[in-house]
Amino acid sequence: MHIDQLEKRWAGIALGIAGLFVAVILGSALVHGIHAPSNVETIDSAKLHLSEEFAEDKLGASTNPDGSVTVRMVAGRYGFYPKTLTLPAETKITFRWVSLDVIHGVHIPMTNMSTMIVPGYVAQVQTELHHAGDYPLLCNEYCGMGHAHMWSNIKVVSKAQWEALNKQGGANHG
């Protein structure tokens, strides 16, 4: 079978462009610290309020013995709970998410924090928030008529302010 030189050239160009796209995607993922979710952990969405970890009084931020912070949040039509959080800057933060009802997405603009929250699974993402200030927490997966109103707010403070809040007992839920 004979393949014309012009067809070979265009096939090479098409494969080269596809290879370039893959290289750019992989390169930007490595440079910006973007990782695919690797934590596969299941949970019964109908019994979240009965679970140890995602009971209402356990939601929010808590400091771990190594100084890192774990944030536990629940996504449900049409909100993230708790609605506001205070978190420290320049600290390793592990977000743990569950959904009450349907697939939700969560994204913090101007950061590398974005993931899907699938009912029946715990979504876990690690990040560091480098700059103090207010960050919106947005749902980026259409979840119904109230989707546009599904947001929360994260206030990032310096480590010194975070430690002062912890001493006062006010850092856990915002």
From TrEMBL:
Pfam families assigned to the protein according to its UniProt record, in alphabetical order: COX2 (PF00116)
Record domain Cytochrome oxidase subunit II copper A binding: where: 66-168
Gene3D superfamilies named in the record: Cupredoxins - blue copper proteins
Location(s), subcellular: Cell envelope
Keywords, in A-Z order: Copper, Membrane, Metal-binding, Transmembrane, Transmembrane helix
Membrane-spanning ranges: 12-34
UniProt-recorded name of the protein: Cytochrome C oxidase subunit II
Organism: Methylomonas aurea
